[in-house]
User: Fold this.
Amino acid sequence: MRTFTTRSCDARHAGFTLIELLVVMVIVAVLATSVVLGFVGADREQNLRTEAERLAALIELARTEALSRNEEWGIAIDRDSYRFLVFDPDLNRWQISADATFRERTLTEATLTVKVEALSIPASEANKDQPAILILSSGEQTPFDIDFTPTWDSRLWRVHSDGLSRTATERMP
Assistant:
């Protein structure tokens, strides 16, 4: 009678070779690099979108403040920053809002371009003491388009209003 013995794998076939392990490690490294680079680009896009949506929300909040306080508000916009102003009738001039919510904001990864009533306002003519956009105590505001143009190759975001309806944000083609 014959007896069969089962033999386990011999030592040569017991595991992975060094070459197989190195190939797997290279594949994992390439995949991890592509994922990280994808997140870095998405992060910049998300920051730009967040900044555009923040400005739209702040404009709506400023409209509410202008109505409730019976004050005239404005927005001064430069190439890389924007700030909210409040008109002081006693001094007969615009003052930068003291409220921390409406503090000056500076952009590092985008430039701002303003069109007020379909007329472009060059950044060189921007003045910190004069608003480009008026927000009246009646709730009306100057019709405008504010473009957030990224410093990298991507589509811009636009914050806009016709002067009566809510301020909206959209990604331009």
Summary: The domain at 15-171 is CATH 3.55.40.10 (minor pseudopilin epsh fold). The chain has one helix and ten strands. The radius of gyration is 29 Å. Strands lie at 73-77, 81-88, 93-96, 105-106, 110-116, 119-121, 133-135, 144-150, 157-161, 168-171.
